[in-house]
Specification:
Blueprint: H1 2-35, E1 44-47, H2 50-67, H3 77-88, H4 96-102, E2 103-109, E3 123-129, H5 131-138, H6 148-151, E4 161-162, H7 165-174, H8 190-204, E5 205-207, E6 220-222, E7 241-247, E8 254-256, E9 263-271, E10 277-278, H9 287-298, E11 302-308, H10 317-331, H11 339-347, E12 360-364, H12 372-388, E13 402-408, H13 409-420, H14 425-431, H15 440-446, E14 452-456, H16 459-464, H17 477-490, H18 495-504, E15 505-510, H19 511-516, H20 522-535, E16 538-542, H21 548-558, H22 565-577, H23 581-604, H24 609-613, H25 616-619, H26 621-636, H27 638-641, H28 644-670
Parallel strand pairs: 6-8, 7-9, 7-16, 9-11, 11-12, 12-13, 13-14, 14-15, 15-16
Antiparallel strand pairs: 1-4, 1-5, 2-3, 9-10
Helix pairs in contact: 10-12, 11-23, 13-14, 13-17, 15-18, 17-20, 20-21, 22-26, 23-26, 26-28
Signal peptide: 1-30
Keywords: Membrane, Signal, Transmembrane, Transmembrane helix
Transmembrane segments: 582-605, 617-635, 641-662
């Protein structure tokens, strides 16, 4: 009985094991078949090295040399082969396939010969390059290259590292790569643009992770006689901001007029899987790599990090919380490598804290297709982010950290089209944009949580809102788009909400695109800036640096000219003092401590020294130097500039009080025996 029971248990175990193995095998085969069509993800980065550019230039020279043989006729095939062989030799592979593809033969009438007795037409075979074969040969992966006109601007991106293809695409757009045909001057077809860009991506891709020493640091320097940007003070209504973007891959020396820009956005941090924050390769907290931050902050220009999502990210509460923690840690990290930064709280008597790596965050996200729950989660995310950064519940111009949002004008206008353009309501309905977060009413609900709304204009909207064929052509479509945006905001039901939006909107001037469309003459640029300042809250610029003439136009638009000669002279002096204001504060503090220490030593240990300290040159000279230095520093410091009149009155009162005390002391001395 026991033996039969044991045999039964063994058989049952074998049957169960076989069933489990069969199920596992079926699941594995199903998984394999399901995953077979999907591409295998390769971890890597994109970088155009000097060798990559040299190889493409060499291949293009080969293509040009071979193409030069097109149209030449050879009576024997070996003659054409002998002409091609030296050109094809640098390609380290067998050339028979190339020769078969390139060479074609044809028949043509032979030359007449006097010895011929008959008049019958004779033909001969000639060999030449096949036009179709030449085109196909140029498209081979080991041969394909870029024309010289497209290859030259790529030198601007040499050795720069990009962690994704979309990020490199932004860089190519920024340098105007493959925008127009070099021969005709007309825009390239989209298919040809895509082919040229894919060729760049294939040559730039590198597997693995970039070398630790590969990234290049950013190098910013101020333009000549550049002072500090004006301090943004709290006021009831419109405050004009000037905002500039600088891509992290612009590592050549960039001259920036910091006194013209209140804030600069470093483009760009990116979001990966599970909202993982990925910093630029050259974002490092040491003096070699963060010196550009110190340069900007010395001129009172604040630095924001731009966070871009090229793919759809998660707007679930848990994933947004993880992103919020990463952002707070990134922007609040104290800047390392500068000893004076650690002394700022002491030199300012607690009014200024240690400078951190960033002064704000600019979100460059696609919020178009968010559901109602995701919109609520994003608003909660911004609210919690403000709390973590110790900011007030509602954004103000005096916030220690700014939270900004990049907004596509196309989404705002499309959502507002039923109110703005009834004749185009079908376009808005087709886009189904009424419930998007970019609708003016919903954007107004989000506006109290952000400081600035940077509006990027998409010229496809201009095409959709184009005038009838019989109407006069609008020469300035960018200004027309700004007018459409202003109209869309003004038609809101709540005037208070409309005003709040206009107070935060900065139209984004895309300098390269405006230049290509002929809208960047000095007069047009000045007029557009004037319109942006009067109707919105300033302007943003993609990308810095600008030309000296453009800097001058921006400075005139955002600064108040000096009315008197003494104001101009004082401003020139402040332009030299302000960027080094913290150094001069340290000098004054050390001077004061040194004098106090000398008096203490003279009083306690060496009394005869006090006679020298009471010499008029020291007794009155040191306080005078200290007072003048302190007055100069406070007058030139952007933070104290708003209290300039109060400081002047206080100094005059101190001088008068000091003189009265001195005279009183002198009068008392006259009565001493």
């Amino acid at each position: 009985m026991k033996r039969r029971l044991s045999q039964f248990i063994v058989r049952l175990a074998v049957m169960l094991s076989a069933a489990l193995l069969a199920a596992a095998s079926l699941a594995a085969s199903a998984s394999t078949s399901a995953n077979e069509p999907g591409p295998v993800a390769v971890i890597g980065y994109y970088q155009l090295t000097e060798q990559n550019l040299a190889d493409m230039a060499q291949r293009q020279a080969l293509i040009d040399a071979v193409a030069a043989l097109e149209g030449q006729l050879f009576t024997e095939r070996y003659q054409l082969v002998n002409a091609l062989q030296p050109l094809l030799r640098p390609i380290k592979r067998h050339t028979d396939d190339y020769l078969a593809q390139l060479i074609t033969s044809s028949s043509q009438p032979a030359e007449a010969n006097d010895s011929d007795t008959d008049n019958a037409a004779q033909t001969s075979t000639v060999y030449t390059l096949s036009s179709e074969g030449l085109l196909q040969w140029q498209q081979r992966p080991e041969i394909a290259s870029l024309p010289e006109a497209e290859l030259k601007p790529l030198a601007l991106l040499q050795d720069q590292i990009f962690n994704s293809e979309p990020l490199m695409q932004v860089a190519l757009d920024n340098i105007g790569f493959a925008a127009v045909d070099a021969n005709t001057g007309k825009p390239l077809a989209s298919a040809e643009q895509s082919r040229l860009r894919q060729l760049v991506y294939s040559n730039a891709f590198k597997a693995g992770h970039w070398p630790e020493q590969a990234p290049l640091p950013l190098r910013w320097q101020a333009t000549a006689d550049c002072g500090c940007a004006a301090e943004i003070i709290k006021q009831e209504r419109f405050t004009n901001f000037s905002y500039g973007f600088v891509p992290y891959w612009q590592t050549d020396v960039s001259e920036i007029a910091f006194n013209t820009f209140n804030r600069i956005g470093l483009y760009s941090f990116t979001l990966g899987e599970h909202n993982q924050l990925q910093s630029p390769p050259n974002w490092r907290n040491n003096r070699q790599f963060n010196d550009f931050i110190n340069t900007a902050q010395a001129h009172n220009t604040y630095l924001d990090i731009v966070v871009t999502a090229f793919d759809h990210i998660s707007y679930q509460a848990a994933d947004l919380q993880r992103l919020r923690q990463q952002l707070v840690a990134e922007v609040t990290t104290p800047m390392a490598g500068f000893a004076l930064n650690n002394l700022q709280p002491w030199l300012s008597f607690g009014l200024s804290s240690r400078r951190t790596l960033a002064d704000g965050i600019t979100f460059n996200l696609d919020l178009t297709a968010l559901t109602a729950a995701e919109q609520l989660n994003f608003a909660t995310f911004l609210r919690d982010l403000r709390a973590d950064l110790k900011l007030p519940a509602q954004a103000a111009t005096t916030d220690n950290y700014f939270i900004n949002l990049k907004v596509p004008a196309r989404a705002v206008l499309t959502a507002a089209l039923p109110q703005l353009m009834p004749s185009l309501s079908e376009t808005a309905a087709a886009a189904n944009m009424a419930d998007t977060l970019y609708a003016p009413e919903k954007l107004a609900e989000l506006a109290p949580l952000v400081n600035l709304l940077l509006v990027r204009f998409d010229h496809s909207v201009e095409a959709a809102l184009s005038q009838p064929s019989g109407a006069a052509h609008e020469p300035y479509p960018f200004r027309r788009e700004m007018k459409f945006l202003k109209t869309a905001i003004d038609t809101m039901a709540s005037a208070e909400e409309a005003t709040m939006l206009l107070e935060k909107i900065l139209p984004l001037f895309e300098m390269t695109q405006l230049q290509q469309t002929g809208q960047l003459s000095e007069a047009d640029f000045s007029n557009d800036l004037t319109y942006a300042n009067w109707n919105f809250s300033g302007a943003a610029f993609w990308t810095l640096p600008l030309s000296q003439a453009q800097y001058k136009v921006v400075q005139q638009a955002f600064s108040v000219p000096d009315n008197y000669a003494y104001q101009h002279a004082l401003q020139q002096l402040c332009d030299q003092v302000c960027p080094k204001r913290w150094f001069w504060r340290l000098v004054l503090a050390l001077l004061l401590l040194s004098v106090l220490l000398l008096y203490l030593l003279a009083t306690l240990f060496y009394y005869p020294l006090q006679r020298w300290l009471e010499h008029p040159a020291l007794l009155y000279g040191v306080p005078l130097v200290f007072a003048v230095g302190l007055l100069l520093i406070l007058s030139c410091d952007p933070y104290w500039h708003q209290f300039q009149s109060l400081i002047l009155v206080a100094v005059l009162a101190a001088v008068v009080l000091g003189f009265m005390l001195y005279r009183r002391r002198q009068l008392k001395r006259e009565h001493y025996p």
